[in-house]
Amino acid sequence: MYRVPYGKTFLEFDLPQGMRGTVVVSKSVEPLADVNGAIKEALVHPISSPPVRELAHPGDHVCIVFTDITRASPDWLLVPPILQELEQAGVRDEEITLLCGIGLHRPSTREEKVAKLGRSIVERYRVIDNEPQNPSALVDLGVVHDIPLSVHKVAYEADLLIATGIVEPHQYAGYSGGCKTVAVGAAGEPLIAYSHGSRFIDDPNTRLGKIEGNPFQEAIAEAGLRAGLGFIINVVLDDEKRVVYVMAGEPIETHRQLVERARSLYQVPIPHQYDVVIGGAGFPKDANLYQASRAASYLFFAPTPVVRRGGYLIIPARCEEGAGEGVGEQRFLSAMRDAPDVHFILDDARKNGYPPGQQRAFVMAKVLEQNKVIIVGSEYPELVAECKMLPVATMDEALAIAQADLGMELDVLVVPHALLTLPIVQA
């Protein structure tokens, strides 16, 4: 019996006769026994930086950029100790702004802010969303790698800019976290458009697990520094979303050290490519098709694609929000639905470019050019079909389709946490 996440629960299934299954998960690391204590220790003894209480001064305006609801960063644990540090430094409540780094996702709801920060913090402090399409809310930071850099004005004008984050495999940045919460989450639409453009996605250095020589990572690091990001606190989570590492301090070095630890956890060797790969996403990533499709593209954009050309990627996902409600999600839907085929999406993107959000259509077109993607258990199967993926109700149906196409004897890789496990093909 196999099990993969599906929403806030799981799907259990058996493989039919002829299918040989292998399960791959991140390496086992003991989660922190005292997470709150570890967070406080990280803030008291930061990396290459004085602690927050020494960086802040009475009268300073402070901005803390935190991740939105699509990210599993436990900001409800990270933010309160930062606020305590600021209080000890003499910074008043009214001089602190908490900025939700939504990027181009839809604005966060009050309840999502409460889920991220806790009700007492939302009621006590000013909490706002990024405004990526409002030029008057943004500051121009210049250009790096042809990317026009920008950041929310409140973040730029702060005397002290702090960010939370989670360090995990990321399709463009190699690993998320570090400067990304500010550089993308609190950025304007032009930065997101250029940094997610076809030139970067086609670049072999813009890959999962790679930060050295990665032009996307270099650009967001520079954007964070130009924005004035002075301090971060980031975590690494295991497959069960438990904190296994937490570090705080100067953004670049702190991120580098956490990436080293994340690699030792997430990167797992596998002997070869597989005929069929089943990838789990789970809540909150499978709430909409835009996010859930990351499970397929992460497996495809590993240093070597995990599935062989012509094989199947099977992703269980409820997609209760459809394609997603944000500007980017709707652009993804339009591009996938309106194009006659995936080759049109690729050719048009390379010729004419695309607005931010639509990069997910380009990414998925690259996946679908070589592999079929089946979405299991979507609440909007017609929408899945419009996006050129195959909707089915059960895992049994998905596996039967793969056998009917490829034959009965198939090698199957099950990756229960496809966004937190990076299989590295050895052969």
UniProtKB/TrEMBL annotation:
Q: Name one Pfam family in it.
A: LarA_C
> Which positions fall inside the LarA-like N-terminal domain?
6-208
List, in alphabetical order, the Gene Ontology terms for molecular function in this entry: lactate racemase activity
Q: What is this protein called?
A: Nickel-dependent lactate racemase
The UniProt record lists the Lactate racemase C-terminal domain at: 275-418
Cross-referenced PANTHER family, in alphabetical order?
A: LAR_N DOMAIN-CONTAINING PROTEIN, LARA-LIKE N-TERMINAL DOMAIN-CONTAINING PROTEIN
